[in-house]
Amino acid sequence: MKNVYMGVFIVIIIVWIILNLIFKFIGEKETNIAKKISGLGISIIGCTIPGISDSIIEIVAKLFNVETQGISNVYIWWIFGGILIIIGIILNRDIKDRVFILNMFGIFSQLEISDVQNIHDLKISDFKVKEIIIDFVDTFKSGINDKSNELIVKKIKDECKKFSNRSKDFVSCYTGMGPIPYTILAGTYLADSKVERYFEYKRSENKYYELKNKKYRKNSYQELKEEFPTNKRINSKKVVVSISITRKVEDFDLVQFTNQDIIKLYVDNPCDNLITSKDQLYDYKEKICFCLEKIKTYYNQVETINLVASIPSCISLEIGKLISLNNNRLPEIVSYHYNNSSVPKYEFGIVVTENPTDNKKGKLIT
Description:
Blueprint (H helix, E strand, L loop, with lengths): L1 H25 L3 H19 L3 H12 L7 H26 L2 E7 L10 H7 L6 E7 L1 H5 L4 H22 L3 E7 L2 H9 L6 E8 L4 E4 L14 E3 L10 E7 L16 E6 L11 H21 L5 E7 L2 H13 L6 E7 L7 E6 L12 E2 L1
Parallel strand pairs: 1-2, 1-3, 3-4, 7-8, 7-9, 9-10
Antiparallel strand pairs: 4-5, 6-8, 10-11, 11-12
Helix pairs in contact: 1-4, 2-4, 8-10, 9-10
InterPro entries: SAVED
Pfam families: SAVED
Organism: Intestinibacter bartlettii
């Protein structure tokens, strides 16, 4: 009998391996794998349930301690099917608890979230973390031109779509340290994805922290203020929107944008890691969205918004998402990259809006 049970165990292992290989080969979703394993177990049990007469014979045989041919085999298959059902239920529960993280390496290669210390700091179960990394550090360091920009844009687009598809049924998260134009661009490809958790990198402590879910009163964090010019050039075709959250965007750094009104969004005391909660993040995002949409009411001929910003990655991604969702109501938006050692300071921009007629999204502006 012991050999029979050992044989059943070996069969289960073989079936498990074969199922995994088949589903990976055909690209089946992991949630479907769990359901099909449970379904296989139910089918095995269903196929081995005897008829009524067989059941009566077995019951009588049991009462008189009489062996009937095939009875033990039926029970073995029941055990086999039951084990598969249990495996499917456990696997399904484990899969649903998984955390998918999109991590952007753009300016320098920071630590991966799946690093042991980061897992510990963020209190995430390491076996549940699935990390997708967009790494274009080397390409960015080599200098930005049309060719390198095309490579980066394609990589961002492909990885974001992959992340959206794989994280659809799970908890999805974002972190990253990339140039603001490319982070905003990534957000435009994630408009349909619900990013539920944000991890920000704290340089001073060389570690990550998560934006809290707790709701705060608006007076518990710095207000994002808005300022339009007093004397507006209402017939302007181009305007500048500056956002100061991490650092103050100085007017003297914007001299390259000649004869353009500057609309400011700012906090009184900008600093690193200013955003600490999702409530604060969404409040800032709504104010930015409201400001961008309002521009056309003051500048009815505006064609381009030149966006310059000193902001954390979480708000960059959310800006990208709102731009994509409100694309039809906004003029062309070009997000610029700041480089303190270059002249001019904003050395290049990326078109982050989409217009089907000119297909300029992702285009490099120098």
